[in-house]
Every structure is written in C-alpha cells, then in structure tokens.
Fold this sequence. Notes:
Elements: E1 3-9, H1 15-26, E2 30-32, H2 51-56, E3 59-60, H3 73-87, E4 93-97, H4 101-108, H5 119-130, H6 134-144, H7 146-151, H8 157-170, H9 174-179, E5 188-195, H10 198-214, H11 217-223, H12 239-246, H13 251-273, E6 279-283, H14 287-293
Parallel strand pairs: 1-4, 1-5, 2-3, 2-4, 5-6
The structure holds one RNA strand.
Amino acid sequence: MKTLIVIVGATATGKTAAAVQMAQKLGTEILSCDSRQFYNELSIGVARPSDDELAAAKHHFIACRSVAEPYNVFEYEHDALAVLNQLFKSKDTAIAVGGSGLYVDALCKGINLMPDPTPELRAELSARIAAGHLPQLLDELQRLDPEYYAIVDRRNPIRIQRALETIYTSGRKYSELTGEKLPERPFRIVKIGIRCERNELRDRIDRRVDAMMQAGLLDEVSDLLPFRGLNTLNTVGYKEIFEYLDGIKSLEQAITEIKNHTWQYAKKQITWLKRYDGISWVDRNNFEDFLQVFDPKRY
RNA sequence: GGGGAAGUCGCAUAGUGGCAAUUGCAACAGACUGUAAAUCUGUCCUCUUCGGAGUUCAGUGGUUCGAGUCCACUCUUCCCCA
C-alpha cells in the first residue's frame, strides 16, 4: 500500500529542511500544506523553501497561485489528491509538509464538500455582521440548524456567517453536511512531528525574523501594498509592516510584533496538533539520526 | 538653590471619596469542517471546596463610616528657572 508521510510541527522548527531530506532519501516529491506558501507574491515573509531546497526535491503547491485568486481548502484537497494519485503511480511514498492544520486535515481526512455561496450572499451576510446584526443571524441559525447552533462559538462571526451561507445556498443544514461520513483515504498516512524545545524555538523565530528583514522583507511587503485589503495578506510579517509603512508604528516595533505574533502562531499550531493521534515525534536536533534509520513500512 | 508635574497589577493606560481597581499590549490555556499565519474564547495580585477569603495603587502617618482618590512628611522620577 502506498504511504503518505506527513511532516507536521510548529513554524520555524525546520519542517521544510526535514521534508527535503526525507524526499531525497525516499526519492519522492513534496506536497506543501501551507496556506500562505501557495502564493507567488509571498516569499520571504512566509519562509518559502529556498531555491536550493526547491531544486533538491520537487515541490507541489508552492507559489502556485497569485494572491489575487485565493485558494481554498476544497480546491486544495481536490488538487492534492490528484497530485498524489499521479505520484503514487510511480512511487510508493509521498511527503506532505506544512503548518496549516486545516489543510493538513483536508489532505489526511478529507473535508465535506459544500457549495459556493454567491458573492452577493457573502457580501450581504458580512454587511449585516458589520452593522451589528449578529444577534439576528444567530436567531436565523437557531431556527434553521438548531444542532449546529447548539455547538457553534456564537461569538465568532465568521463561524456564523459560514454556516448561514452554506445553509442558504445548499438548502440543507450545515450540521448535516459536516456530519456526512468521509471516505477512507486509499493510502496509509504516517505522521511525523518535528519538535523543538520552547526556548530554542523562540530563539529560532527571533533569528528567522531578523533574517527575513535582512533578506528584504520590507521591499516584498511594500510591493504588496495594492493588495493589502485581501485576507491573504492579513498575515504575520505583512500586517505589521503595513502599519509601519502607514507610519502607525516604528520599524523596530513592527519587528518585535512579528516575532511575538509568530510565537503566538507557533503555539496555536502546537495546540492544533494535540488533536491528532499517532504522531511520531522527533526532536529537530535528532532528525538526521532519525532519518538514517527511518523506514516508512515500519510505521 | 527656586518653581512645577508625576509615581496604579510585566509594560503602557483609566480612575479625583464606595474599587481587587478600566483599557490595550505581552504572557498562559483553549476552540476550529470554504477567510485558518485567519477568526474566536477563557485566565492573567495571592489562596480557593469557585460560593468566596486575604493582601494591594512609591513609603509612613493622618482626616473619614469608608482613601488609589483628601492632608502632612519622606523617598524616587521628569520638566522649567538658576
């Protein structure tokens, strides 16, 4: 049976390098599960793999889209399965690596397909929320899908909006759609978690942010000014520098915030990973030793 | 040496007689099925059987039923004149 090796872990733990080494050892290719590395215009700030790394192993889903045409989990799942299908014709293993939990989930477990809301519907719901009408939306949700209403985070507008827009466009309950059983993947999944001691990770994050600045993050972000309204650019490393460019804060403040926010993101990722069973954890400093003896068949 | 302003829970900030005390940041924990590096929640003086209990607003003393808030002195910081 074919095996997908999924490398997970917090940001800045060295997942990218680990995946490349793994790919070289196994002679296979890499699928990225990173919701920001999809974008062509985002490079330094999202720690895209270096040219050398990209040359060392074939990567999919890196810089494959423009920020002007955002990707989403459904498309991603569909495309990723297609890539895997193709890849497994000639290889026994494939590697997935990335820090976006939802995308890792979509790839490993799948995601219930839901219809596209029309832009008008989405805009209308957003407008109602912006106008402070969340309570009315909650009433609608309670009436149309009491099961989901009972468990949603009612203070999170995005959740409410999402549920309502799918209810209105599908004519079915959101809880019904998410409750449908997902088919098993036709391949084995082996999860490898890269771990890094807290202080070391903090330090690595700080140094990586400094390195990004040296590599020209400021220019990268300046060039993206025209797109700053897009959610895709509501991203650590970009939003802070936009504020610097606005004159709202000093460059030093912006850099400190990027470091803090990256740390907060890393912790969020670690929290997310607690939901997975069966991750084989390996300390980043022992990865090479681990790889020496690693045999996917034994996991 | 003279005059003025100020010291609040890690940092910043609100509070001029009823306060364990506002807000932001940071920190810590958590949620997550089409925005996911997004969005949202809880904790954040100490102890707690989560009902409360005990100590707080530079320090000491005082006025008051009651003081972060008023008064006196002390310490510290900043600004202006010398």
